[in-house]
Amino acid sequence: MIGDVRALLTCPVCGSGFPVTPAGPPPQALRCANGHSFDIARQGYVNLLPGGARPGTADTAEMVAAREAFLSAGHYAPLAAGVAALAAAAWPRPEGPARPCVLDAGAGPGYYLAAVLDRLRGPQGGADGPGGVGGTEAAGLAMDISARALRRAARARPGIGAVVWDVWRPFPVRDGAVSLILNVFAPRNGPEFRRVLRADGALIVVTPGPRHLAELAGRAGLLAVDTRKDERVEATLGASFALAGTRDLTVPLRLTRPEAAALVAMGPAARHTDPGAVRERLAAAPEPIGATAAFRLSHYRPA
């Protein structure tokens, strides 16, 4: 819920905070100290984007539904587990009474954020997990430009607050407010990542490996992975972060035709392919359709 991260947010109009009100019914809007107000949607997220902003790169309803179907089938569960394990290893010990926070920049439906929060919570409700001290459990801030995706993120797990925002803009988040940042197949705003991250915090970035889903590139119309991906990541993050380590993860996939079609429909290839044409291409493929998902998990510390 938004209340879990309210104290970390700043007004996108004036930069002031959103005062935390005493316990009571959930607020219907966020109102900053200067009176700027932002309605909280009934699904639990809040849209802080300025009125003139155009979320042209937001996931469509069809993309979100395809991602939800594919992820719920467990195909990327090994990736979620890998991200969660890396997050637990990199997690800084909480200091003081403030509730620690994980920011997922480009969170989509909150699949990876939920996995990380579950891992940090530990087996004893937070007190014995790496993310909790004396029962203090980490909150999650899901940030994405797609309101459709955040409807799911807001309900992915208790403790998640979801905010519609363009990650290329300065974040509506206080300086040094978050302990860990996740960035899974999403745009990377290095300067803003560094500004909102604690000095002892960590950034985890997931990018596709060179041969990610190569078997489906021709068959289903998936886009080829950028061969200069690592260079582009370094160019974006190098001035603000130091690479602490990388891990490559491969996940063999055995897909039905509808699952393969959902895999195409949930990512950027959906903007360049026709769903009907994809289904036609896959119709002749024998089931199960084999493919290999290849991921690079990188761990960064503030420079």
**Largest sheet composition:** 8 strands, mixed
Order of helices and strands: EEEHHEHEHEEHEHHEHHE
> What percent strand?
15-25%
User: Could you say which structural class the secondary elements and strand pairing correspond to?
Assistant: alpha/beta
Q: Tally the beta strands.
A: 10
Helix fraction, binned, reads 25-40%
Q: How many alpha or pi helices?
A: 9
First and last CA, distance: 32 Å
CATH class descriptor name: Alpha Beta
Q: Tell me the CATH topology.
A: Rossmann fold
Question: What name goes with the CATH superfamily?
Answer: Vaccinia Virus protein VP39
Tell me what the structure shows.
The protein has 303 residues and is α/β, with parallel strands linked by helices. The chain has a single domain, classed as 3-Layer(aba) Sandwich (Rossmann fold). Helix content is 28%, strand content 24%. The protein is built from nine helices and ten strands. An eight-stranded mixed β-sheet has the order 3-6-5-4-7-8-10-9, with helices on both faces. It has a two-stranded antiparallel ribbon with strand order 1-2. Helix 2 packs across helix 3 and helix 8 packs antiparallel against helix 9. It is globular and about 60 Å long. The protein starts with 28 loop residues before the first strand and ends with a strand. About 4% of the residues have low confidence.
